[in-house]
Structure formats: structure tokens, C-alpha cells
Amino acid sequence: MLHRAVLLLLFAVTGSPSGETSTVAPSAFAIAAAPLRADLTLGAWQGTLVDAAGTPRRVEVSVADGIRRDTVFGYFTLPGKKGRETTVRRLGRIVGDDLVFDLRDGGRVALRLLSGRLVGDVVDPAGQIVTGHGTLELGRLRP
Questions:
Q1: Which residue range is the domain that position 129 belongs to?
Q2: Does some domain include residue 71?
Q3: In the chain, how many domains are there?
């Protein structure tokens, strides 16, 4: 009997499950995301590149000023076999809310700034950074 009384009290406080959703005004603390600017991505980043098979690889990315406004140079450094590293340099540009680096054969790296991290997708038919496609998540090392 006590359980039923508690359940009825909860329904009275929260409303009955009628399937209707109430419209809630946005919180006063909600902050709209600022548009991505190239200068927000400058500096050293480190993180993980995960290929289509789910294999993670360490990656370091350095982002430097580009030749025009809203462009940057990205230096993608990946560990290779026998302790060798491979660095791929690509020009990046702001496209909408993404920072996009073009790769050979129509490939691209598209990154978005979320909560201070760069996250995105890699499509790489030429295999410069990853074979086929993958995901990339980077955290800032230093500005």
C-alpha cells in the first residue's frame, strides 16, 4: 500500500505518463556555440585516429597560420613501422562549421571543435593518413 501511495505522489508531482511531451524553455545558462575560426585551431594537438576496423593509432597534429584568412596548414604526424614517423602536410580551410583538409584522390579530413577538442572524420582513398576512412579525436597539447 505504501508503494502505491509513493507512486501516486510521484505521478502527482511529475505528471502522468500520457505520451505528450511538454515544451520546456531553454535554460538561461545555454550558450550558443561560436562559429569556428581558423585561429581557434592553431597549436599542437594530440589524439587518436581510429580506422574502419576499429584499430586506434596515435596521431599528432600541428596547425599553423595559412596563406589566407580562414586557412591553416595542418601537419599530421603518424607513427610508422620500425619507429619511423610519417608527416603529411595539408592546407585546411573553414567550410561551414568544419575545418577541412583536402587529401589526394578526393579524400578529406573534416574536423569540428567540440568542447575544446577537435573531432571528425577522415576519408582517405589514397591511404595517406588511414586506409579508407576513420575517425579522429584530438586534444590540445599547447596553443
A1: 38-142
A2: yes
A3: 1
Read off the DSSP letter of residue 125: T
Q: How many whole angstroms separate alpha carbon 20 and alpha carbon 12?
A: 16
Measured CA to CA in angstroms, residue 8 lies from 14, 18, 20, 22 at distances of 10, 14, 19, 20
Provide the whole-model pTM. 0.72
Question: In terms of residues, how long is the chain?
Answer: 143
User: Residue 61 sits in a domain of what CATH number?
Assistant: 2.40.128.120
Q: How far is CA 33 from CA 93, 95, 113, 114, 126, in A?
A: 19, 16, 10, 9, 34
Distance from the Cα of residue 101 to its chain's centroid = 14
AA identity, residue 81: K
Locate all alpha helices (DSSP H) within 15-100, ordered by sequence.
Answer: none
Per-residue pLDDT tens digits for 45-63? 999 999 999 999 999 999 9
CB 90 within 8 A of CB 100: no
Does a structural domain hold residue 91?
Answer: yes
Q: pLDDT per residue over 106-141, tens digit each?
A: 999 999 999 899 999 999 999 989 989 999 999 999
